[in-house]
## 1
Amino acid sequence: MFLEQFPEDGKSHGWLEIVCGSMFSGKTEELIRRLRRAEFANQSFLLFKPKLDNRYSDKQVVSHAGEQFDAINIEAAPEIWKHWKNQKIVAIDEVQFFDSSILEVVTKLAAKGVRVICAGLDMDYKGKPFGPVPSLMAAAEYITKVHAICVSCGNLAQFSHRTVKEDSQVLLGAVEKYKPLCRNCYNKIEH
């Protein structure tokens, strides 16, 4: 993985990392993996999640595979400033659920020398760019796109197909409401 290409000192400058992909692609697992490495290196960090995401826990970020890490729930991105006390790393899970103010917050943090790691869906269930993620990707120094496995054919999946009838863009759920599909299988389904 190219994580080893990141600057070692982290003292003189910050940067923005984005981990994105479909549902069940391992975004949160990758975020947690990066934080465990930072924890091992005794680097100070904060992990945030939107209050909206209460699927598995209110006080932890939890991957579909059961990996978990303590987190701070916030409703809006500017709340990060109330908690940040010069930690070297700020991580944000489910970043697609924040509004466009997240871009200003993370770019200011990076300008202050912070390594900022954001994980989230890059596309909604209709295959459209999701929330602030495209803008975050444009501003990021490092982007990791992770893929699930298509449950229909076994190819790499990049689409989160919604299996229930609900038209709102935000619908929390897991395997009971979504399944990962490749482009070919996704395009065969009526949306």
## 2
Amino acid sequence: RLMGVRRTRAGDHTRVKNLTYRRWVRNVWHRRALHAWRRAKSPPRLSAWLCIHHHEGPWNDPNPPYYGGLQMDMSFQRTYGRELLRRKGTADKWTPLEQIWVAERAYRSGRGFYPWPNTARYCGLI
């Protein structure tokens, strides 16, 4: 969900008695989970986000009004990281990967790198 990908629905494979089929289904889901894990570990534009982070602050920066390594304000966090904000608190408590995926969600929504105008210019992104 954090990556912006629809979740697949669970099937009825647990009612099937055929052990070979159940193993096949388990292996299919294992491969899908491994693929999703690999995709989550390497978000698009990772080098751009790391460059912005380099000029912004530490990943666990707790100083208001901007939090985390990408310096997200509360409005930004509410808009693009609502479930993380509710579950974990402000961005300084999120993992670096979660912060990057929230920033990527904002990028994909059409905002691009403009929430970080100066740093994006330093990095040559705008």
